[in-house]
Every structure is written in C-alpha cells, then in structure tokens.
Amino acid sequence: MKTRITLAITTIGLSLHLMGQNVVTRNDTVSVVHGSDTLKLAWASGINVAHISEIDLNLDGKMDLFIFEPNNELNDETGDKILPFINTGGSGIGYRYAPEYRAEFVNKGVILEGMTMLRDYNCDGKMDIFTHDIRDRVTVYKNTSTTSLTFKLVTKALKTDTSALPPNFFHSGEIYWNWEDMISITDIDSDGDLDILTIDYSGSFVEYHKNMSMEKYGNCDSLVFELKNTCWGYFAEDFGTITLDTCNPYGNVTNPEIKGKGSSGGSSKGAKHSNTSLMAIDLDGDGDKDLISGDGLRNFLYAYINGGDKDSSKITSYVLKYPAAKPADMIVYGIPSYVDVNHDNKKDLIVSPRYDLYKDYNSVWLYKNTGSTSNPAFAFETESFLQGEMIDVGYKSKPVFFDYNQDSLLDLVVGNYGYFKNFAVQYNDYSSQLALYENVGSLQAPAFKLVDLDFAGLSTINLNVAKNKPSYGLHPTFGDLDGDGDEDLILGDYRGKLHYFTNNPVNGKANFTLDTPEFLSIAGVESTPQLFDLDDDGKLDLLVGESEGSFNYFRNESNGSLKFTLLDDSLGNINVREWWDWTGNSVPYFYRDDSLNTVRMLAGTKLGRIQLYDSIVVGDTLRQKFHLVEYSYQNMYDGIYSSISGGDLNNDGSLDFVLGNRSGGVTLFTSEDSIYIPGISEQKFTNLSSKLYPNPAGDEITIVIDGADGETLDYHIFNSMGQGMSLTRGSSNHRINVSSLKNGIYFVRIENKNRSISITERFVKVN
Q1: Same domain for 194 and 335
Q2: Is the dihedral of CA 406, 412, 417, 419 positive or negative?
Q3: How many helices, marked H, and strands, marked E, lie in the chain?
Q4: CB–CB of 720/647 below 8 Å?
Q5: SS3 of 21, please?
Q6: Strands, E assignment, 546-586
Q7: Across the chain, which distance is largest between two alpha carbons, in Å?
C-alpha cells in the first residue's frame, strides 16, 4: 500500500479549524434485524414514556406524530424529550423518526417545562401548543407556520373568570395544571371551541372551564374561559375511592352550566393528592363526553360513563379496569392519548405511563379503534407501539462496539441500567443485561442482527456479593487484559463496583467467565468504565466515569498478574456536572487523534450533551487540566443520561459513534471527512512515502518509509477500537511479527522520538 505524505501544521488555530471540518451525521440506514423482522425505527433512541399528539411537522397536509417524554428529575425543559415522527403515508402504521424537527420546538423560543399536548384552538387546521409551566399554569403557543414550522407565545397563563364562585371559595383565577397531572382540552359542550377539564387543588374533583369564544365572538379563535362547574360529572375520586353523586364541599359556582341531574351536591371532603390524568371523549356514542382517567394509586385506567348529556353531565357508572378486554397496566397511572396512528380516519387509543421509573419497556400500549371516532371500540394491538421497531433495552442504554466473533466486523453490545421488574420504596428492582447484536454485513456495509438479549448470562450472575444477587446498571468495556489475544470484559455497575471477566472463546466466539467480582471500586456510584492506554505504555488503563460527574484513572501496572492502581479520582480536573446540579453522570470515551498529535475525550453527561476535551498529554495526565473544546459536540443529542462509544464501523478510516440515553435506545452517528480514529488519522509530511506489505497479512508485515533514512521509529499497532496491540522500535525498513493477532483490521502508527514524523498505515490480518 502506498501512502502519500504531506506537511502537518499543529497550531491551535488549525486545531479549531479542523474541528469545524469534522462532520458527524445521524445514520438510520444501517439495518437491524430482530428475529425475521427488520426494524423500521432501529436507531430512533428508544421510548420509555409516550404522550402523543398530532401535528403536521413538514407542512405536507398529513398529520405526523409529536411524542413528549417528560422527565421527572429535572424540573425544567432540559430533561424533557421530544420525539417527532413523520407520517410516511399509505395505509397502516408508517412513520419515520425525524429528530431534526425537535429544533423547531426547542430552538425557536418555545419552552416546554412539563406535560405538553397539541390542540388546534383557533380552527385554522394547525396544532397549537398547550404546556405546563413551573408555576402550575397553562402556557399556550399559537402555530403560525406558513413555509416552515413556527410558534408564537399567546399567554404564559390561561385565565378563567371565577366571579360566580362563592366568597369562601379560593381560586387564583388561573387555570390550574398540577405538574403531575394531565388535563383534558376538548370541546365539552359541542359548540365548536375548546374547553378544559382539570383537576382541582384538592385532587379529587374535576373543574370545567368553558371557552366563551363562540358565545362572545361567534368564532373559535379565542381563549376566553369561565369556570362553569367545580365538580363536573358530580363525582369524586379520593385515594382510589370513587364516590358518585357528590360535589366539592367548598361549593360550586352560581347556576353551574353543566349540572348533575337530580344532584344537589354533597358534603364529602377529599384529601389533597395529585397524579391524575384526564381524557374526555364520547365512549358510547350518545353525544356527550365521558372520561378516561388514570390515577397514581392504581395501575389501570378508569372509564367514567356520563349518564347525562352535553349540557347536564353526571357520571353514573364506571369501569374499574379499562379497556375491559385487556386493561392497560402501567404499574403507576397511565396517560391516555387519542390519535389516528394507522391512517384510517379513526382515532386510536394509546396508553403510556406518567413516569419511566416504573415501566421502561413495552410501555406504549396501542388499542386500535374498530368503531369510529364518535363511537369507538378499542381492540388491543401491541404493548410496544413504535418501541417494537427500535433497539430499546429499557432504562439507560450503554452501547459499545466489540468484535465478539473475530470476523473483523464490529458487533454491537448494549448494556443497560435495567429492565424494570418490581417496585420498591427505596430502590426499584431491575434486571440488567447485555444485548448482543452481531454485525452480519460487510466491512463497508454493516448490518446488525439480535443474537442474545442476555449476552454472557449476566442477569443470573450474582455480582452483588453482599446480597448474593445480580447487580444492575451494567456498563461494559472490552480489551485484552491477560495477553492471550482476545478481548476480556470489565463491567461497571450502579454501586460503583467493577467486575472482571476473562474471555475463553468457543469456536471463535467470545465466551466470558467471571474471574473476580468487585475487583475494583470507585468512591462514587454508577461506574462507567473504558479500557484505553492513556500513558502509551502498551497496557490498557482503566478510565471510569461516575454519577458525581468526575473521572477516575486506574493505571495498568500488571506484571504477570492483573493489577490496576488508582492514580487520580478527578482526572483532568474536570467535572461534567452542571453548576446547579448534584450529579453529572460522566461517561468517558478517550481516543487518539493523530492529525493533532494528541489524545482527546468525548464525555457523556446527565443532560445528554456530548462534551469534547483536549490538552490531554500522554504520560502527564496527573498534572494538567483538560481543555473543554465543545460543550455540545456536533449537537449529538438524543436524550439525557447520554453514553458514548466509538469505532470504525464501515472501514473508511473514520470514527463512528453509538449513543445511549435514559430512554433505552441507541443512536448511530457516522463521520465524514478527516474524522478521528484512535491512532488512525493520517498525519502526512512532504518528501516522505510509506509502504506496507503484504496486505492482507499473515504472520508478518514489512513497512518501508522512504525519505526517513537514519531515523529510529516506533511502530505501534492498534485494533479498530483504538486499543494498543503491540509496540516495537526499528528503522525505516521494519518487519513486525503479527502472527498472534486475531483476524481483523489493524492500524500501525509510526513515529519518531519528537513526533515530527507520524504516519499511519492500515492492514487486514488473515490466517
């Protein structure tokens, strides 16, 4: 192989310029197969919670999907996730993940601080935004789209006229939206404008806020509300107990517009609670609104049947578990959505939990409407609407590349915090596993197939020694630690422990055996390890992120037996934690960038942004502060609790990335132009050329550097993951024994002492 060498310049200005030239793009074209099915949305980042609305995202006249996944840890818009899906047309369910439309919401002045739904309040055919704000108010943005998607703030707090309330009844005059509730926005009285049902302050009664737009202006383009009933339906729900024919003990408005027939109110006083979802729809085709509701004290939805009419609502019966044929079990209370997902002009029922801490897979239940929108009949279809077409491993995915079968193709291993199993007061119980996806494509065209959801059987291995039970929060890293030519496994877990597995391949496929559980630990929790030769001594060191946000450096000091020594628990003097937060959840991915003659690190973070650091001087890491180059590298984002790893997936000499996140999915990013590969990016010099032969190689390779006569050169071989395999020293005409290397793609970095010469060659090892 001939390689032309040109002059390299290493100024800081050029470093920043090169960063601007490196292009990282999403890649959803790499196929992924589960069984006999090719996933249609494989790289769509996963879903734990799906609150679904309709909207025309690309303005083609067809309704697309807006999925809002609220976060219950960060009480502002930084933790919530938007998943846009474009309607691909035709009959049946067909959508394309379109994360580019996320920016149309978050980068154009729209602030979504909590529960969000889209409704067309002004009858212009465009879906407007109704969202909860941090003061428990209803904020509204008007859809002003013409040639592109745009929104305009209408009000930060919807007002309601409460003048008809009795004097002793306190009300703020703003429509109340508790942050844990889902309100209902629909036309309750069938007059053409949107009304609102919301849970009152006690958490027991339903308030009816009538939109007076039609009455006042003869059209539906305004948001003018009056509180018309403090106990719509004349029923109460108090901590799981339903009482019919009752009303708010604090009283009602004068002459409530929708009053229960034969009801004069009641005296029941409910204790204050929240966690309630409301969706008003006509379930029985009689022209009035019934109610589907979820509650934090029960797993299932209730259906409340309105025995009155649109002008005199009264709940007269209810179904305790709805839909009756197969109730939607959400562990905690469910949020119903009513949208047409299969394009048959009939709205379907979708149910998903309010929180993802209790149900994180099979958590988007679809009930197909076999009736009509005005008189629905719901037939269960699937527990994993859209989810089933994705890589989705439950809660907090942690993907890495690893060639498990030694065929020179990078396979994909996805760790996770776990699949939810059981609810517990202090810590929920999870089953943490590694999912193995074999690369069944080629060097230039990767393709993955699910081989094992519990690779290495980790769900049954008792890594928690003290409790004699499996651990969870498993984060894998691979590398040859015992010098036998295959890659071993180190696992981090939620307790901050690190576990060592040796690899004893069977028929060329990785076969892991637990060698030492808890062989290392960090001071913090949620250890996220990476094996990387940081000090360039030919041994893989151990770099470990953690919940607190810093990085730990364990140097490999093995000499016959495996030994790591903690040298620094605050490597680089950096922390990815935000100034206002207690945790940062750091995940390291170190790599060598020979184009800049340096080591760099990409870091996953709690907020999901991928941070880029440089100024990492090999061998001197204890006395330096890493330099933050980019706070949000290439806008690589698909949810909070990001995890990142990389490798040359398509054999183009560029580094490709896989990202994990809280929702349990995986996102693939591929690189173009002069993207970094550990020890691979070609550093070129004038008047020099290099040649490596034979290629493919068997037991030995020869490298000749023309124009470097008299130089003493280091020849460092790396695998496609950037892990050092051997280091030898020789002249410009040098032979290297590679008989011990397994089949695969390798890179040779050639440098002189002062690194004024730095060249990279690539070869393929075959038996």
Answers
A1: yes
A2: negative
A3: 3, 54
A4: yes
A5: helix
A6: 551-556, 564-568
A7: 105
Residue 733, strand partner residues: 704
Q: Which residues contact 496 (CB under 8 A, 6 or more apart)?
A: 521, 522, 523, 524, 525, 526, 527, 546
d(CA 727, CA 601): 23
Q: Which residues of the chain have pLDDT under 50?
A: 1-21, 74-78, 261-273, 425-426, 674-686
Instruction: Kindly state whether residue 172 falls inside one of the protein's structural domains.
Output: yes
Query: Do residues 468 and 410 share a domain?
Result: yes
CATH of the domain at 737: 2.60.40.2550
Q: Are 720 and 645 in contact (CB under 8 A)?
A: no
> How many structural domains are present in the chain?
3
SS3 400: strand
> Per the structure block, which two tokens stand in for 385?
């609407």
Q: Among 513, 511, 466, which Cα is nearest to 493's?
A: 466
CA 677 – CA 724 distance, rounded (Å): 13
> 710 with 621, same domain?
no
CATH number of the domain within which 487 lies = 2.115.10.20
Phi and psi at residue 81, in whole multiples of 5°?
-125, 135
Distance CA 617, CA 596 (A): 12
Q: 233 and 372: one domain?
A: yes
Is 13 a domain residue?
A: no
Place of tokens 């060498």: 5
Do 384 and 399 belong to one domain?
no
Task: Determine, yes or no, domain membership for 20.
Answer: no
What confidence tens digit (pLDDT) does each residue in 203-212 have? Answer: 889 999 999 9
Query: What does the pLDDT read at residue 180?
Result: 86
- Report the pLDDT value the prediction gives residue 252, as an integer from 0 to 100: 85
Which DSSP category does 594 fall into?
T
Q: Which domain holds residue 742?
A: 689-765
- The answer to whether the predicted template modeling score (pTM) of the entire model surpasses 0.90 is no
DSSP secondary structure code for residue 663 in this structure: T
Q: Give 497-502's long-range contacts (Cβ < 8 A, gap of 24+).
A: 497/463, 497/471, 497/521, 497/527, 498/522, 498/527, 498/529, 498/542, 498/544, 499/463, 499/471, 500/562, 501/456
